[in-house]
Amino acid sequence: MDQLIKTYTKHLRLPYIHQNLSFHLEQARLENQSYEEFLLNLFQYEVELRQQNGVNTRIRAAKFPYLKHLEELEVAALPLEAQKHYQTLKSLEFIEKKQNVILAGNPGTGKSHTVIGLGIKACQAGYHVYFAHVPTLIIELKEAKNERVLQRLKKKFDKYHLVILDELGYISFDKEGAELLFNFISTRCEKASTMFTTNLPFSRWNEIFHDPIITAAMVDRITHQSYVINMNGTSYRLQQSKKFLENHES
């Protein structure tokens, strides 16, 4: 009978129950559980497994370069603006409101850790997220244009509740790249959230796009009803390295 039940759970795609039925049957007999208690426990564990598998799938699909959780972030070491908005960003309400977030400041102040941590938290909350370095995204957009599948690529991005664009400004790009990125971002504005990290203030974005009209339009689009957070400050990575050395020496 146990084997027959396992066969049915396999057909019904209930992997937790399929793998752990014998254990739960034994527990039910030892604890004299009612039928309702037995079934409730089985279904609860099955649902929890599916939810965790869903989280893992969304995190893999997001293509984060590495995993950094908000729990690992030392908030007190972040620039003051980031500390001020941390709880609001952590609530993820900006995703529900389809707002953008721009973290702008010098390298090493915790921008990437912050956006990756928020991205992972969004995956855990059931949102679909995608992470991309801006130079890599532009290459992808150019290839899609050359292969005449640009609209298909844009539709793919429509399913993401949050797109994280990292390292805007580290590498400048040509006019075609600027126009493709502008169009990509414009289609998401007020429809879904986008997070940006950049090492340049808006006054220097013309160095990236090499076109004052596109630059002005880009800044106007992404900052409308958005969180613009000044991330200039002491290097977060340097502070972490010092603490590691101090703890190691002690």
UniProtKB/TrEMBL annotation:
One of the record's GO molecular function terms: ATP binding
Name of this chain's protein: IS21-like element helper ATPase IstB
Record keywords, A-Z: ATP-binding, Nucleotide-binding
Family: Belongs to the IS21/IS1162 putative ATP-binding protein family.
Listed NCBIfam families: IS21_help_AAA
Matching PANTHER family: ATP-BINDING PROTEIN RV3427C IN INSERTION SEQUENCE-RELATED, CHROMOSOMAL REPLICATION INITIATOR PROTEIN DNAA
One GO BP annotation of this record: DNA replication
Ranges of residues in domain AAA+ ATPase: 97-232
InterPro entries to which the protein is assigned, alphabetical: AAA+_ATPase, DNAC/IstB-like, IstB, IstB_ATP-bd, P-loop_NTPase
Gene3D superfamilies reported in the protein's UniProt record: P-loop containing nucleotide triphosphate hydrolases
Methyltransferase among keywords: no
Gene encoding the protein: istB
